[in-house]
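Why does residue order matter? Because the sequence determines the fold. Keep that principle in mind as you read this record.
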Amino acid sequence: MLRRASTVAALTLASRLLGFARDAAAAALFGAGAVGDAAVAGLAVPQLARRLLSEGALNGAIVPALAEVARTEGDDAARRRAGAVLAALVLASGALALAMFAAMPAVIALLAPGFDMDGPRAEAASLVGRIAMVCLPLMAAAGALSAFANAGGRVGLPAVAPVAGNVAVLAVLGLCFLFPGAGLALLALASVAGAVAQLAIMLAALRGTRFAPVRAGGRVRIRALVEVWPMLATAGPSLLSAALPQLRFLIAGAAASGVLGGVAALFYAGRLIELPLGLVGASAGAVLLPALSAAGREARALASARGIEAALALTVPAALGLAVLAEPIVTVLFRHGAFDAQAAEATAGVLGLLAVALPAQAAEKILAAIAFAHGFGRFAAVVGLAALAVGAAVGFGLAGPLGLAGPVLGLVVSSFAGVTALAVGLGRRGLLRLDAPAWHRLPRLGVAAAAMALGTALAARALEAPLAAGGFAGFFALGAAVAAGLALYVGIAVALGGLNVEALKAGLRG
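Structure:
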C-alpha cells in the first residue's frame, strides 16, 4: 500500500498538513469559546460537503458509468452525460444552499441545540453559515469535475485541488490578523475562497481530457437531467461511508453544544485524529479498493488481511501517541492568541478520549472497502446508520451527567459498534479472514506500540519544560518526542518480526 499510494497519498498528506496550519490560525484568531463554537457550527455543513464532494467520493458512481456510456454509445454521448451530471449536481446543491440560507437559524438549532437561539453564539453561527452556503454549488461542481478528470486518466492535478484550497483559506485568514475587526465574516469568506481555488484547479485538470462535459442541449436537457439521477443515487452508500467520521463529529458536536467551548474543542481535537485516519482512507480508496475489485477470491482475502494489518500498524501507535502527548500536542499547535490555557486543557482531554477510537475507525474504513468490493455497499451503509444512532443515544444521554466527555464517549461507542457489526457481517459471509502471517505480526506490533507509548511518555517527561512553554522550543521538543517514539516503535517491531524490513524498504523506495 505504501509503494502504490504515491502521488495521491502524498498530496493528501500535504493537504492535511496545510489543514493543520489553517486550523491553528483559526484557533489563534477565534479560540475555543463562544466565538470558536459559532465558527465551527456555522461551517459544519460546508466542511461536510467539502469532504464528500471535493475529495473524490463521487468517483465510485460517476467513473464506471461514464466509461460504460463511452463504450456503448461513444465519447460524445459520454461528454453529454457528463454535462448533465454537472448541471444536475450544481442545480441541486444550489437549491439546497438557497433553502439552507433562508432557514439557517433552524439549521444551527439542529446542529447546536445547546446554543441560546437568541444569543450571540447562534447569531454569529447563522451569519457564518449563510455566507458559507456559496461553497455548496462550487464544491459540487469541483467534485463532479474531479470525477470526470479521473475518468479521463488525470489523477495528479485533481489531487492538488485540496492543497490549493487550503492555501487560499490561509491567505484570506492572514487578512484576519491584519483586519481583526472583520472577524467571523472573513472566516466564512475564506471558505468561499478555498472552494473557488479548488474549482479553478479542477477546471484546469479537465482541459483536454476525454470526458470534458458538453451541454446536453435544447429539448433533451430536462430529460438528460432526469436520466442521470439513478446513476448519482448509486453513490449514496459510498458517500455515507465517506461521511461517517464527519457525521459522528456533527452528532457529538450537537450533544456538546450546551457546554461553552465544547463544539470548538471537539472540532480541533477531531482535526488531529483525522490525519492518520485520512491516510488510511486515502489508501483504502486509492489502493485497496481497486486491488480488491480486480482480484480473485483468494487474492482478495490476502489483500484484505494486508489492508487491515497496515491500518492497525499505523493507527494503534498513532492512537497511543496522541493519547500520551495530547496536552503538549494541543499546547504547541493551538495555544496561541485567543486559544487560551482553558481551551487547550479541554481540547487535550477530548483528544485523549478520541484517540481510543482511532484504530476502530481505521479498521472500519478497510472493512467498508471490503464490503463495497464484494457488492455489499448497502450493508455497510445500514451498519453505518445504525452505529450513528447508537452514538447519538449514548452522546446525548451522557452529556448531562458527564459534560463534554459524554458526547465524546458517544462517538467512541459509535466507532466500535460500527467496526464490530461490519466485522461480524463480513465474517459470516466468509469475506473476512486474517492469514497466519497477520496473526503472527499483529501481537508483536501491539507490544512495539505499547513500548513506544512508554518511551514517548518518558521523553515527554524529560522535555516537560519546553513542551509547556510552547513556541519554537515546544515545537522542536514535540518533534523530538515524536521522532523518539517512531524510532522505538519501528526498531522494536522489526526486532520482534512485526514489520518486514525488505517490504518496508521497497515501500519507501516506491
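Residues 163 and 421 are 35 Å apart (CA to CA).
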